[in-house]
Amino acid sequence: MKKVIVIGGGAAGFFSAINIKENNPEMEVIILEKAKNVLQKVRISGGGRCNVTHACFIPKDLTKFYPRGNKELLGPFHTFMTGDTMEWFETRGVPLKIEEDNRVFPTSNDSESIASCLLEEADKLGVSVRTSMGVQKIKKEESGWKIFTKEEVFESDYLVVTPGSSKPIWQLLEHLGHTIIPTVPSLFTFNIKDSRIKNLPGISVPKATVSVVGEKLTASGPLLITHWGMSGPGILKLSSFGARILAEKKYEYKIKVNWLSKSFSEIEELLEEFKNTNPRKLVCQRSPFMEISKRLWEQFVVASKINDTSKWADLSRKQFQKLLEEVGSGIYTVQGKSTFKDEFVTAGGVDLKEINFKKFESKIHPTLFLAGEILNIDAVTGGFNFQNAWTGGYIIGQNLGK
Q1: Is residue 7 within 8 Å of 169, Cβ to Cβ?
Q2: Cys bridge to 145: 129, 159, 283, 356, which one at CB 3.0-4.6 A?
Q3: Closest Cα to residue 392, out of 95, 69, 16?
Q4: Rounded distance, CA 114 to CA 107, Å?
């Protein structure tokens, strides 16, 4: 009987193990998990609801959400895609729903639905799950693999490595000859101390365009003002695509914010129109833009050195221009970062050049398979990192289960 050891009891690990056993029930599959509990990231993701995947059904479009791994995942996504993930869970009794922003969640709004499904499938198929089994050493032998934990030594014909972002496992893989791209945080929010947003936590705009001054880094999306600075999908997307550049800057840089994601000339035209239509009204009385709340608009007015009694007709050209700049190209200084909720994601991992993505197999050791965040693949927020895990796990299962 052939034997497989899976290191890591997360999404990619369970999906690999389940699909191996489904394709080859005779194969012995053991999951080794360092923690006391498995599927912890599944349980905490999406605020405890588990953002299973994203309703993007065209492989080429889906790859655009991956700053690292987009080229490598194109082929795999043609094999197992977001729709396949949804069908997989739904045929196993977990109904899913697509929300307005195209994120996919279990209808139950409870991540336990996903975790329970994976645990039940693994149990039904006879996958052995061993917790509190931190791997300390991996040895390649002619006959297969030896995996050393503090408690036991395991032998296997095949080895599947899916522990997520794990420095100890990266070090073990490095000893086996793999190149590890150094890790840096990928999804994070921006720490900003600025009087314009200081007292506005909770205020948001539906779509802003944010760029890093002096770099070709721009992202658009909803923006949220927080107690420590700025967050929201637009900021997180920028942090993901700019992960390495922002790390090199030691997380100190300036950003330019277009609060409406409209062209400068269009914003100017709208402001002129509002000014001409409301010449006798106070500038601070209400925001000319539905997207910008009154409280945020008031801060723009203050920053433009316009007092509370000024009317639109009284504005100097300089004051009008400053208002325009505040809305269309406000400059903010970022000094540090904060982790996005509990979902710590990193850029870095096993060099993708060393992986055969038709099988998610190591080019250095043909019986070694890797999937998930152990590879130098990461994505923006929205269910994409999980889709990478499901796709990698499925393809490993198909190949090892033959």
Answers
A1: yes
A2: 159
A3: 16
A4: 11
Spatial distance between the Cα atoms of 155 and 145, rounded to a whole number of angstroms: 6
Q: Where are the alpha helices (DSSP H) in 182-289?
A: 233-241, 243-248, 264-277
**For helices 112-125 and 40-48, angle between their N-to-C axes, nearest 10 degrees:** 160
**What is the rounded CA–CA span in Å between residue 363 and residue 227?**
47
Rg (CA), the chain: 25
CB 250 within 8 A of CB 274: no
Instruction: Compute the distance between CA of residue 240 and CA of residue 74 in angstroms, rounded to an integer.
Output: 19
Closest CA to 386 of 42, 8, 49: 42
DSSP conformation class of 374: G
Phi, psi angles (nearest 5°) of residue 132: 55, 40
What are the Cα distances from residue 156, in Å, to 42, 131, 145, 350?
A: 27, 18, 5, 22
Bridge pairing between strands 128-130 and 28-32: parallel
DSSP letter at 354 equals G
pLDDT per position in the chain (402 positions), as tens?
A: 899 999 999 999 999 999 999 999 999 999 999 999 999 999 999 889 999 999 999 999 999 999 999 999 999 999 999 999 999 999 999 999 999 999 999 999 999 999 999 999 999 999 999 999 999 999 999 999 999 999 999 999 999 999 999 999 999 999 999 999 999 999 999 999 999 999 999 999 999 999 999 999 999 999 999 999 999 999 999 999 999 999 999 999 999 999 999 999 999 999 999 999 999 999 999 999 999 999 999 999 999 999 999 999 999 999 999 999 999 999 999 999 998 665 568 899 999 999 999 999 999 999 999 999 999 999 998 999 999 999 999 999 999 987
Are the beta carbons of 96 and 111 closer than 8 angstroms?
A: no
Q: List b or e across 306-329, with b for residues whose CB sees 16 or more CB atoms inside 10 angstroms.
A: beeebbbeebeeebbebbbbbbbb
Give the residue from 365, 366, 370, 364 showing the smallest Cα distance to 395: 370
- Edge-to-edge strands, sheet with 158-161: 128-130, 28-32, 3-7, 158-161, 368-370, 361-362, 355-356
- The two three-digit tokens of residue 377, written as one number: 């693949």
Question: What is the set of domains in the chain, with CATH numbers?
Answer: 3-184+343-400 (3.50.50.60), 188-339 (no CATH)
Please report which helix (H) or strand (E) contains residue 379, including its range. none
Cα distance between residue 327 and residue 209, in whole Å: 11
